[in-house]
Amino acid sequence: MKFSPLLTITKICAKTYLPVLVLAGGLVMAAPAPNAFSQERILVAKLNGEDIYLDEVLRLVEKLPEEVRQQPLEAYFDRLVDDIVDSRLAATAGNDAGLTNDERVIEQMSIAAQRVLAEAWINSELRKSITDEAVQQAYDIFVADEQSRHEVRARHILVKDKAEAEAVISELQGGADFAELAKKRSTGPSGPNGGDLGYFPRGAMVPAFESAAFALEAGSFTQTPVQTQFGWHIILVEEKRIAEAPTIEELAPQLRQNLISQNLGRLLDSLRSNARIERRPFADIRLEAQASAAN
After folding, report:
1. Contacts (Cβ under 8 Å, ≥6 apart) of 222
2. Considering the domain boundaries, does residue 270 fall inside one?
3. What span, in angstroms and rounded, lies between the C-alpha atoms of 7 and 23?
């Protein structure tokens, strides 16, 4: 597996470096992590006598794809250190070649430095609001909202057309057993199991099916066929329940991520409310770019 450079360290003057993060698609936010500088820094390597610390490697880990981060750190740790080494060596070579005097390079360095500063500030602000108390409060709200944990246990019979669905309903109204009829008539994958779908919450089924199922009383079936993109359904709701809430330990990662999204939105909105932002229409920008390319 190859990693593209994630971090370039550009030498500005002797023994001074400016971190430049390449963030594909704009500012990428991760869950706020503890400040690495609040603890003793752990040395992982030396490059021409200069130190490379663990916190620098861990900052690279935050930028890796999720599927990579799920692997054990030791599986790719050495490659991240190699990336830092390569970046520092290339940056030093660029400095020696005089690229730090190139106006375009200076501009790119400035933009990258702004991104680093922006991410650091945002993470710092989020850390203030994403506390254990905030997570507990979010959990309490979730537990109190029983509506979001409603589930139904249902069966269904899926047929190809409305006329056949109406015929099935007539048989059910005449006393036919739902499960046996599902085994005989349903074209859905649950048919051999008597149409049993088990328990499911809101959001698990297509909207029309969900609306019909949750509107039924336990022990009743739909008196008119329900159409979805899969065909025509007759739905029987056998039971209703409120699912047991996950523990706060199980839900904490999701709650923290939700709080990050909410607080990040408010934080950026507050910044924008005090800023004067002037945008040019995209059509004008495209025309200007095309004219520039033609010349």
Report:
1. 169, 212, 216, 233, 234, 235, 236
2. no
3. 9
Number of domains in the chain: 2
- Would you say residue 74 lies in a domain? yes
**CA pair distance 126, 259, nearest whole angstrom:** 9
pLDDT per residue over 134-168, tens digit each?
999 999 998 998 888 899 999 999 999 999 999 99
Name every residue whose Cβ is closer than 8 Å to that of residue 157 and which is 6 or more positions away in sequence: 165, 168, 178, 181, 182, 185, 186, 188, 191, 195, 233, 234
Q: Is residue 276 assigned to a domain? A: no
The residue with greater pLDDT, 147 or 125, is 125
Judgement on whether residues 104 and 169 belong to the same structural domain of the protein = no
Residues 235 and 209 in one domain: yes
How much is the CA Rg of the chain, to the nearest whole Å? 29
* Containing structural domain, residue 165: 147-242
Residue holding tokens 């023994």?
15
Pairing of strands 220-221, 50-53: unpaired
Q: CA 59, 60, 61: angle at the middle one, nearest 5?
A: 90
Measure the CA–CA gap between 187 and 53, rounded to whole angstroms: 61
pLDDT, average across residues 196-213 = 96
Residues 191 and 106 in one domain: no
Rounded-to-integer distance, Cα 160 and Cα 187, Å = 8
pLDDT band at 54, cuts 50/70/90? Answer: very high
Secondary structure (3-state) at 290: helix
The reported pLDDT for the residue numbered 185 is 95
Three-class secondary structure of residue 88 per DSSP: helix
Token pair of 166, please? 């109406």
CA 223 to chain centre: 40
Q: Which pLDDT band, with edges at 50, 70 and 90, does 26 fall under? A: very low
Among 242, 263, 281, where does a domain finish? 242
Region 34-47 average pLDDT: 70
List the structure tokens of 93. 């070579």
